[in-house]
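Could you join me in thinking about how sequence relates to backbone shape in a protein? Would you write everything just below, so we can both look at the same thing?
***
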Amino acid sequence: MREPILEPLLRRLRIKKVLPIIKQYYNCSLLDIGCGRDAKLLKTVEPYISSGIGIDFKVQEMSESNGGKIKTMSIILEKTLPFENNSFDIVTMLAVLEHLEHPIEIVKEIHRVLMPKGLLLLTVPSVWSQPVLEFLSFKLGIVNRDEIADHKLYYNRLLLQFLAQKTDFEMIKHEYFQLYMNNFCIFRK
């Protein structure tokens, strides 16, 4: 299935937000929640990490064989993550939070699987992006229609601060990007 024209650009912009932070934590262990069909983020950061696991319901499973550092697992997110406590230095969630039925439970699980002082890097559409995304997908067809139809909630700074407090994270950075259409946050355990 061919991807709508705007999707690769939006993905590159999200990866561009998190790549400098991941490079600062050279040789970290990384979990990418919602890695997508092709695990593009993990493939991009592979030179900078010691190991990376990507989970998504639509990803083809891949093992760390042949000396690779990347593993992918086909998982449907509900309320738990299948990893031990304190397993990862960094967790990424790029354009995923808005799709979750149980965002607080999953973010609590992320807190559990992160090492002390570990980071959650996330991007999520802002409250102002809903009409724009719906127009780009439903009217123009240049953004994935099914992805936009699946959005449960759009976020602003206050909602993300509330999420951080509710899940015992410290929000150490928040900024809007892409003309206020997206939020970028760093939460620390």
